[in-house]
């Protein structure tokens, strides 16, 4: 079986989540990924527990499968020579150091590409590599705050809230993979020349604000948090049933009419306050009260089944365990085994008709492959 990145070498100089996750995706597509870590401590996330798994933390395991680990001290001449040999042989280099920090070691984009012009060198920063942003620390939580995401997350009138997972890091990882793959394809079409690809956490977040940013650019007014409500659609929110919450995602008038029929109140669909989406948005408080009065007659799971049966998007609010169980029941195969002594991990989410992603190997122990990699790189 031929995979798109078979035979390609990725030097993963990154830490924490965005860069390591991008490198895992490239490994899934066939690349050989060598993770460079600090001697003694390794990637910061090895210590980010509990929970613990394998040789480190569950956090580290989530972003480092199918890699080889080598511990290198760039301040040591021999280790630095090994690091240079690695990046000079690599098809792709991924790093998220502070801007300029790798220059004195000859591991920055300009130096690497001078020695290895075929290299696609991917830098992930917090706020860009020029101007004031170059010196700003790039942490997901900070970018959620500065980038506006927290201002539209949380209850209406309440405190700003972060998203429950490091979403900005994960968005940046996806953008980094897109950039790397585009640069590799460009290399094929441009005579073998690599390039420097830059992704910032701030840029990835802003590019993903979609309709919320478009609303500001159209009106000049910043959107605000609305809890689980949608700023432009109703009912598109959680509604209280007899035993808990039901997520309802009505996207058009036909779905709203079907909802009203199934709830036993078809006349709501022709009520002037609710007959069109703009009217429902304008009268969302009255709409919520009317719907919740009807939903109180049964449990959320029962309503979800009934509404889905008549074409109304609805579902219970699941925990992560329930979500994974549902995905398995639907045949989505959401997890994959990585080896004895390690928990399952989330699977590569894309299905391909011509190839399958690599069967993953366990996340490495610190410097697990150091001796073999040093010997291989010394061969030249």
TrEMBL record:
Keywords: Transferase. InterPro entries: CoA-transferase_III_domain, CoA-Trfase_fam_III, CoA-Trfase_III_dom3_sf, CoA-Trfase_III_dom_1_sf. It comes from the Bacteria. GO terms for molecular function: CoA-transferase activity. The keyword Nuclease does not apply. Pfam families: CoA_transf_3 (PF02515). The keyword Glycoprotein does not apply. PANTHER family: SUCCINATE--HYDROXYMETHYLGLUTARATE COA-TRANSFERASE. This is Crotonobetainyl-CoA:carnitine CoA-transferase CaiB-like acyl-CoA transferase. It comes from Microcella frigidaquae.
